[in-house]
Design goal:
The chain has 14 helices and 17 strands. Strands 2-1-5-4-3 form a five-stranded antiparallel sheet. A five-stranded antiparallel sheet has the order 7-6-10-9-8. It has a five-stranded mixed sheet with strand order 12-14-15-17-16, with helices on one face. Helix 9 packs antiparallel against helix 14 and helix 11 packs antiparallel against helix 13. It is rod-shaped and about 185 Å long. The two termini are 76 Å apart.
Length: 626
């Protein structure tokens, strides 16, 4: 029920509503597909951007690690020398320490510490040593790790961290160097950053060591409680997006751990900078989608104006035609599909009008057929009944008795003809009428027909003759009995419509198309020229011609009332077509009508077996006439 309601709703929209619905139905899915594609493109771009930020963070971490390693190398060299001079006094190292510190401007001081934490040598002398707690922590960690380490010292200044690098000695103790944290700026000095982008370094305890650009005003340097490192955990590299705890800018950060230093390098780019190109592209796409939708709706309305009006006029014409106005026509303007539709509608209307006229004509012909059949049945039966009653009385002379019997026989022949025609009509329309094609001698069939019909022609004062070609005619492809019946039917029609003293001729000749042409010509009243194309139609009876030499108007009326139901010529054409031939009607050379039957010549190997239906009845009819 819901589906039917939806379908009815769509049907009620009309052309305009359907076109608009079509435009929206096409534009909206395309827009959605575009948004999905745009989203997929953005996701791919985002992944590429994340990889790029990861690479930048890894490069920053590698640069920082190399810088720390460069600061560590002098300590490794110095520790080797200490081990080589294990028996010498610590003061002998002062020259080496002085050289190392003086060649590195960012180094604050350098100390050699014993296994128990005692200070063995320092440069520059008199500088305050690192706090004892820091020294103890470094000793325990280097001893545990048996490797160098780096930590930050904020005991001097919270705003200016100091790198403390410790390298273990084999016999115990360590070498400790303190480096100014401002040196980190030299690592990233030549790096160009986008607007509001940052680069930063954090120590192993998540304290900020370096940030570019620097925060103004100064902020708390620890970010332990921020989601920054909570999300990062123990991973080596990662990408996160969140708001900066220093300046409140929402950025995408790439974090990478700087090797053994346990420090973390971070590169952050504002999200707005990253999203703005995609946002502008998406806005443009949405704008273009809205414009496309508006254009589609406008185009559908424009097309509707060109479609709806002709279709509405066509609908009105269809309603008028359906109401019975056979003169209703659709206006045809211009070409295209609408013009062709209007032309097709008009052609259909004309054919319907012609069919209606034809149906009326057929209805009239059927009425005449019923009337004719009734007359054809009633008149002979009345005559037979009357003459039979007279014969039963037995008061006639022998001559009268013979005349009555001949009349009864003629009326019986007339009934047989009518019954045979009706049977053949039913078989033809049912597709059950078949003939047996055999080689047929045309001359023999013509002579038999002349013998059968000669008595009827003489009774009306007419001459019936056969005019055959002197050259021998080839056998034709037909059924001899059916062909004889066709020719006898044509002769009987000629007898009906030929006045006394007229002539009826049967002839045959070679046809130019390797066949035989059989003609039945008479000098009768003829057929009206406008009726000539219709004489082979079912139930149609051609009207006599307007004038005949020696025939008065009253005589023409008698010929128009001649007995018949309009089936003879229709049956003749159907039978001849089954022979593979054709039949034509034409006006005679002087007057009357000429019927010509064209039959193909017989060719060996084309015998088609099977008896024609009704063959026994036709033979009986021929025997009765004989």
């Amino acid at each position: 029920m819901r589906r039917d309601a939806r379908e009815e709703g769509v049907e009620e929209l009309g052309i305009r509503g359907r076109l608009v619905l079509l435009a929206v139905g096409v534009a909206v899915p395309l827009a959605l597909v575009g948004v999905v594609a745009l989203r997929a493109t953005w996701d791919a771009s985002r992944r590429q951007l994340d990889d790029s930020i990861k690479q930048q963070a890894e490069l920053a971490a590698v640069a920082f690690e190399r810088w720390v390693d460069a600061q560590r190398q002098p300590l490794v060299t110095l520790s080797a020398r200490v081990e080589e001079r294990a028996g010498e006094a610590p003061s002998t190292l002062s020259d080496d320490m002085r050289f190392i510190v003086s060649s590195r401007p960012h180094w604050i001081d350098l100390h050699t510490v014993g296994p128990s934490g005692e200070l063995l040598a320092s440069h520059p002398a008199g500088r305050e040593p690192p706090p004892s707690a820091l020294v103890g922590y470094l000793l325990s960690e280097t001893r545990r790790r048996n490797d160098w380490m780096v930590v930050t010292d904020r005991t001097t200044s919270e705003e200016r961290p100091i790198f403390v690098i410790a390298a273990p000695l084999r016999g115990g103790g360590m070498i400790v160097a303190r480096v100014d944290g401002a040196a980190v700026s030299e690592i990233f000095r030549d790096i160009r950053l986008p607007e509001r982008a940052v680069i930063a370094v954090y120590d192993a305890e998540n304290n900020l060591l370096y940030r570019r650009p620097a925060t103004e005003p100064a902020v708390e340097l620890t970010v332990d409680r921020s989601p920054f490192f909570a999300e990062f955990g123990d991973r080596h590299v990662a990408v996160f997006e969140f708001e900066s705890p220093y300046d409140g800018v929402h950025r995408v950060y790439g974090l990478a751990r700087a090797g053994a230093t346990d420090c973390v390098a971070a590169v952050g780019v504002p999200s707005a900078v990253l999203y703005e190109p995609a946002r502008r592209q998406q806005n443009r796409y949405l704008l273009f989608s809205l414009l496309a939708l508006a254009c589609a709706v406008a185009a559908s309305l424009f097309v509707e104006r060109g479609l709806a009006r002709p279709v509405l006029r066509l609908r009105e014409a269809a309603r008028d035609l359906g109401a019975g106005d056979l003169r209703a026509r659709a206006p045809v303007r211009g070409g295209g599909e609408i013009g062709e539709l209007g032309a097709s509608f008009n052609l259909m209307a004309e054919r319907i009008a012609e069919r209606e006229e034809r149906l009326k004509e057929l209805d009239r012909l059927k009425s005449e057929f019923v009337s004719g059949v009734s007359h054809e049945l009633r008149t002979p039966l009345t005559t037979i009944k009357t003459l039979t009653r007279l014969l039963q009385r037995g008061v006639q002379t022998e001559a009268e008795r013979q005349e009555y019997l001949e009349t009864i026989a003629a009326e019986c022949d007339r009934q047989i003809d009518l019954v045979l025609n009706l049977l053949d009509l039913s078989r033809i329309e049912a597709g059950a009428f078949k003939v047996s094609l055999t080689p047929t001698d045309v001359a023999e069939v013509i002579r038999a027909c002349v013998r059968i019909e000669r008595h009827a022609a003489r009774a009306r004062g007419q001459e019936l003759a056969a005019e055959l070609s002197e050259n021998e005619l080839p056998p034709v492809m037909s059924d001899a009995s059916a062909l004889r019946r066709v020719l006898c039917g044509l002769v009987e029609n000629a007898i009906k419509y030929t006045p006394a003293g007229g002539r009826i001729t049967l002839g045959a000749r070679h046809d130019g198309k390797a066949g035989v042409a059989i003609t039945v010509a008479d000098t009768g009243v003829g057929i009206l020229a406008e009726d000539m194309p219709l004489v082979f139609e079912k139930f149609f009876r051609g009207r006599p011609a307007a004038s005949v030499d020696g025939a008065a108007a009253s005589e023409l009326g008698d010929y128009a009332e001649a007995p018949g139901v309009g089936l003879g010529l229709y049956l003749a054409r159907s039978i001849v077509e089954q022979f593979g031939g054709r039949i034509e009607a034409a006006e005679g050379a002087r007057r009357g009508t000429v019927f010509t039957i064209y039959l193909p010549a017989w060719r060996d190997g084309e015998d088609r077996g099977g008896d024609a239906p009704g063959e026994e009845a036709r033979e009986s009819e021929a025997f009765a006439r004989g």
